[in-house]
Design a protein that fits this description.
Length: 568
């Protein structure tokens, strides 16, 4: 118990009490906290200082690793003789081995110590993010398998490092995925500094792997050179390429390895971005103690009741998008996509993006009308969500501006160029409006859950009756359930109805816009306009920088929109 000691500026040496009749002189009295409070307060302050020092040191470690790796990558790009791709692979292999050692130590040592994990962050590592981690990790492993197969086919002109590097990559991806799947929610309470340094080293390694994937177009150039040689042979001309010894033999396996590598290449960059975001949340949660108020928040459950128009419009957009995607893929796998398929692809976007923008603007206006209080609780996951939404949007926005400059400088009056120009402008506006809608909704207090006992009993009664329904009573049961659905839907205010409809529609739209570029539809690289304007290598770097960020943005937007839908 905290005690208050009362003292004067000139204390009496012979008496410890003030006369009862004497009035206290407030100008000469000050209050001191007890020794226990002062000692505990110094401990808390020291703990905060050590936490800041640990974060600073681990951050400096990651910064130096990233700068070292970036220097290697820059030297490889601008000076192929002094620093080669094999040298960069050796550096990254050393970093991955160090990360593997720390991850194994964390799994077998740190996390199993007594009182190591007293709290788990319920906001960190949601199931959709861990599912995406598992999906992209599996495709990244498959990508390295294709790379090994491609190197084996060209074993006569490939170095041994090109076989070792993908093998270490497979082990690294598998171990890191297992680690993040089980421990992404941990708030570790022991070995703070070692854990922070290990997490930051792993983040830096993933960033360097992402930078290498963005800038390394050696295999793509090699495949394109081989295809150009084949075309020249068919035309009766002498091949221009100097890499004749590395020409892919006319086998089915070689063709499969080539197409599989190109198709799966964006998955690896996406995987690195997901890992960086999850590892950063773990780093912020090291030593964090979650209060009872923060841990015992109301958890809303996902329910489809109360939405009609959003799913209807969203499913329509998904079905049309799948049809466009399949037609584009058929054209792309058979031969080079023709003019009409590009027109159809961009026309779909030009129709869908304005609908999404209008829905996001209406949702933002509803947020302003409902006047809900802001959620001011400290939440590292939500803060990271906002940063990732803003940062990931820069990928597609940057690519759109590059496309706008290329089109305006060439021929904006052509039909396809006009569609690409409209697509680029609408994409920028859609990203901005959707970000405002999601971020505004994430920072507001959720609606109180619908806990009406009458509705609950009614739905339980209906579920019990549906098990014993006969064929003759089927129509009556369907009508009764429909009336109950309408009754539940009518209890929502019009603002909550509109927010749920808008959020569900945007969820489905972002899902189809995530599927199309993820699984092979890359018209920004295949239409040839920007590639001929900026050059192959420059546009390759721009696309491999912006496209994974765009895919990550769609995936992360789905998570934020689902949270808005559930909270409404």
């Amino acid at each position: 118990m905290l005690a208050n000691n009362v003292s004067r500026q000139k204390p009496c040496q012979h008496c410890n009490r003030r006369p009862a009749s004497a009035a206290p002189d407030t100008s000469t009295i000050h209050y001191e906290k007890s020794w226990l409070y002062r000692h505990c307060s110094s401990l808390v302050q020291g703990d905060r200082q050590s936490q800041k020092a640990g974060q600073l040191f681990s951050g400096l470690l990651a910064m130096n690793v990233v700068f070292l790796g970036s220097a290697f990558l820059s030297s490889m790009i601008f000076n192929h003789v002094a620093i080669t791709l094999a040298d960069v692979w050796i550096l990254l292999s050393i970093l991955k081995v160090l990360c593997l050692c720390w991850i194994i130590y964390y799994l077998l040592g740190t996390s199993r110590q007594p009182h190591a994990v007293l709290h788990r962050d319920s906001h960190a590592g949601p199931i959709w993010l861990r599912g995406s981690l598992l999906l992209f990790g599996a495709f990244s492993v498959l990508l390295n398998v294709f790379e090994i197969g491609y190197s084996v086919v060209h074993i006569q002109c490939k170095s041994q490092v090109q076989l070792v590097f993908p093998s270490i990559e497979i082990l690294y991806i598998s171990t890191q995925t297992l680690f993040l799947w089980h421990h992404s929610k941990d708030c570790i309470q022991v070995q703070h500094n070692l854990t922070r340094c290990g997490l930051m080293l792993t983040i830096a390694t993933n960033l360097l792997l992402w930078l290498l994937a963005v800038t390394n177009d050696s295999v793509h150039k090699e495949i394109e050179s081989q295809l150009r040689d084949v075309e020249q042979r068919l035309a009766g001309k002498a091949p221009f390429s100097r890499t004749i010894s590395c020409t892919c033999p006319n086998t089915t396996a070689c063709s499969i390895f080539q197409k599989g590598y190109i198709l799966l290449y964006p998955f690896n960059t996406e995987y690195c971005l997901i890992c960086c975001s999850m590892l950063y949340v773990m780093w912020k949660n090291v030593g964090r103690r979650i209060s009872h108020h923060h841990a015992s928040h109301i958890k809303h459950k996902f329910k489809l009741q109360g939405v009609v128009f959003g799913p209807l419009l969203g499913v329509t957009a998904v079905i049309v998008g799948i049809c466009v995607f399949m037609m584009y893929q058929i054209q792309a796998t058979g031969s080079a996509p023709n003019y009409q398929i590009f027109v159809m692809y961009y026309s779909y976007y030009v129709v869908l993006l304005p609908l999404m923008s209008v829905a996001a603007v209406i949702g933002t206006i509803i947020h302003a009308l409902e006047k809900r209080d802001l959620d001011t609780l400290k939440n590292p996951t939500r803060s990271l969500d906002v940063i990732l939404l803003m940062g990931a949007a820069l990928g597609q926005i940057g690519m759109s501006y590059f496309s706008i400059v290329a089109i305006v400088a060439t021929d904006p009056r052509d039909l396809l160029n006009s569609l690409i120009l409209s697509y680029s402008v609408l994409l920028i506006f859609q990203h901005i409006t959707q970000n405002v809608f999601i971020i505004d909704g994430l920072h507001r207090q959720p609606f109180p859950p619908l806990s009406k006992e009458e509705l609950k009993e009614e739905w339980n009664h209906e579920a019990h009756n549906q098990r014993r329904v006969s064929v003759l009573e089927l129509g009556q049961e369907i009508r009764r359930v429909s009336l109950s659905y309408i009754h539940t839907y009518s209890h929502l205010s019009w603002k909550r109805k509109a927010l749920r409809e808008i959020a569900f529609f945007l969820v489905l739209c972002n899902i189809i816009l995530w599927i199309m570029p993820t699984f092979g539809a890359h018209p920004v690289f295949e239409n040839g306009l920007e590639k001929s304007f900026y050059g192959y290598s420059t546009w390759f770097v721009i696309v491999n920088f912006g496209l994974p960020l765009g895919v990550f943005y769609r995936m992360h937007s789905v998570g934020g929109l689902l949270e808005l839908y559930i909270s409404a």
